[in-house]
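Researcher: Next entry in the queue.
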Amino acid sequence: MKPLTTRLILLPTLSSVLLSGCLTGGSSTSGDGNFTISGTLIAPAGITVDSDVNDIYASYTSNSNPVAPQALANIATVHGYASDSGTGGRFSGDASTERFADSGDTDDYFSASLQAGQVIQLQVVDYNGNDISTPRGDLDLYLFTPSDTNTPVTGSDSFFAQYETLTVPADGDYLINVRAFSGQSKYVLQLLSADATAAVAAPDDFVANQVIMKTSGSTAASAKAAGMSIASVQSSQGGPDLVTLSRTNVSALAAADTDPLRALSETLWEKRQTLIDIKRLSAEDGVEYAEPNYIRKPLSTTPTDPKYAQQWHYRNINLPAAWDLSQGSDVIVAVIDTGVYLAHEDLADNLISGYDFISDTSTARDGNGIDSNPDDPGDSSIAGQSSWHGTHVSGTVAAVKGNSKGGVGVAWSAKIMPIRVLGQDGGTTYDIIQGVRYAAGLSNDSGTVPTTRADIINLSLGGESSSNAEQQAYTAAINAGVIIVAAAGNSSTSAPFYPAAYDGVISVSATDYNDELSYYSNFGSTIDVAAPGGDASADANHDFRADGIMSTYVDDSSGSRQASYNYQMQGTSMASPHVAGVIALMKSVYPSLTSSDVTTLISTCKITSKANDTTCARDNQYGYGLIDAYLAVTEALKLDNGGTLPELPVSLQSDPSSLLFGSSSTSLTFDLSNGGGGTADVTSVTDDADWLSLASTSVGSDGLGTYTATVSRDGLEDGSYTATITATDDSGSVVEVDVYLQVGTASASETLTQQYVLLEDADCTDSDCVTAAVFANSDGSYVISGVPAGNYHVVAGSDIDVDGYICQTGETCGAYPNIGAIQTISVSGNVSDIDFLVNLTSGSSASASAMSRAAVSGKTADSASTASKAVAE
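Model: Structure for this entry, 873 residues:
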């Protein structure tokens, strides 16, 4: 008899894995079987790697000399490594596997053509020693203009800070310098567009070799203790405690004589050395402060912009037009998932009371069983390795609008009821049933029900096995008036996936930027509708960002939770809340909306991209089509008005909703139309870029019709550019058209450093279940040989600091079949095509994609000290 508590798989989920076993280039020598498992690792779009990491097996090109920096596109994400001294093999136990065992990798230099207002962000992964076997490192960030040494040298050089951030002061070619001040650390360096994060003021220029400081002790003694290159100390007229330090004998610094930056530019080297000396001095006892001697100029700042521009997926479902009609007010959506980070700045105002139904205290990670607190403590014991799945899903449903933070939710006036059922090891059928019954206002193990039941339930979870108990629970909830939406699964298979495949549950497949079925998405006869789930392996709009789904997230890489955002997550888990949010918009204008109403509207193609298909031909990829938010709300308004559509306001719409100029196109057209009611009168069609111009091609007196957008690349540096075309009607209706331009040959990097592929025993319950490990080839292909018959998981990742672990923050990580969608592979013969994406794990506010899988437990510091990679003879 099957146990009632059938284990379900969290979508997505992944964990830190100990590198062990025997690594070879072609196959593993572990095991007594004769079978093979083979496949290819897929590189994430827009991610590149520092070309001189510590792993001796990784491809190597030094970027330690500013004369030969590593070239980057103007929008980029780099994962790298830096150290102030040699590691000596103390991490791996074998110095021969560490590139910087004998000497440090103090400086990494990158070159890029950047625009004013761009933000450069450095995440110092090991800044406080949270990684298992790694001492803490202090990395700093510097920005130079090598062609003009009279411009400021900007630096971000806090002590042991997790993030260092700079703003680009003007258009131009720059050198970016990641420098190890002390210790060693992995890092994630991001070059963000000007609208990607809050503005940071660019520092003023300063006088090289001078420091202004206030001290309560002996300045000379402090300077000597700090190891500074100060030859004289002069008091200013400000008093005995305010002094100006002049470093006059710079040539006496023997170590600096060989610094390659000094060979490039004495001025740049002196300015950076001044900032380094200031940092050293500020740490000395008796020094109240130490500062540059600034050359005062007017400060330049950039405005604070939300991340809505990154939410391309909303335009793909015609959502902005729907917001003119509904925002989801007075609707409750239950998100049954890992819980929610309740203090998130972009969610807190839209959260109502929920419940935690995880009954197993060993997996709950909150110290108890079921309780009334659905706050998500994380599903991994290792900092930076939790999935924060429910928080991301909740943000897509109803992130707060208008608070100048992050993006917005599909139904940004709806309320979220967080129900926690997934913990460290996923969740069980029994606990999920209790959560469903609670959300529906039915009896459950908590002994209580919510004051007002949920209108909609989102389930971004599931498994391949069906359960009579689950079907009965969903049927009961639907009979109680709840509409249930679920993810179709990420295994790229037609096999049914539950709960999405149950009767009455709306099953959602995932699409990418081009509205095509995402490579990982399940398909088949049980699919009802499609919605954006993203594809982090692609960059179809050429904005140098992976085409994942941008939503709320949590950064706990420091050991404590902080609100964050993530645009790299992908999956049907991300598609399902789009549909749940759209149904919330419908329910808001037609409170009597039922599950039957929604399924009828879907199955008749009235609220999907197939609305104009007279045959309404269902297919196994998209079901009845891609959800259309505007059509969905108008149909709900029709139901609320007795079957007749009430008079609607003007709703300007554009076809297409974005213009992709790529690297060669100069002119593209778009059509403005009125998708609503009333009479349109377009008062303006404008753009916000000097390189973009607009012309009327075939436009009527109402301003509707065809427009031509033309771009000029003259004078633009190579890189990626974005702009917005805004059309406005006199009634207040507005439609925006995203414009993407590429100049030159710059493209998103899709490079992988050395990847290690691990085979795990899926039936293992020990702390270490790895049975074999192999190198992936440079093209991502791999073969694991000598595999006995049995059940397995395949995971992969990088180890750029050579501490014996993959899947840590600042490294790549993935699992079959999809990042965060681990599936058991049954081996009874040779198995091929085990292909999957390996993505960057980071706590960064713009690219965080850390995942965790508790099926393989995190290792302790003691066990980490013996971890190493062994190369087969």
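Model: The chain has a mean pLDDT of 80.
Researcher: Noted, moving on.
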